[in-house]
């Protein structure tokens, strides 16, 4: 099954979010803020996109095969 572009993007963002939270929990290292530097608005946008991606994947997994 080939992933659509939106699926791929959401998957990448969810993976980045999971890795980031793992690093925050283990080492108190916020990778997103480290990469983005001092741009709080951009960091907030990235976190919003990661959250929306998580909700998208939750929707995809709970409605899989219910068409």
From TrEMBL:
Record flagged with keyword Membrane: yes
Transmembrane spans: 9-29, 41-59
InterPro entries referenced in this protein's UniProt entry, alphabetically: DUF378
Going by the entry's taxonomy, the superkingdom of the source organism is recorded as Bacteria
* Keywords of this entry: Membrane, Transmembrane, Transmembrane helix
Q: What is the protein's given name?
A: DUF378 domain-containing protein
């Amino acid at each position: 099954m080939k992933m659509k572009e939106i699926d791929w993007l959401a998957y990448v963002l969810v993976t980045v979010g999971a890795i980031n939270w793992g690093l925050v929990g283990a080492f108190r290292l916020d990778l997103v803020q480290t990469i983005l530097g001092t741009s709080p608005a951009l960091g907030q946008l990235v976190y919003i996109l990661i959250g929306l991606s998580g909700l998208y994947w939750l929707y995809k997994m709970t409605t899989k095969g219910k068409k």
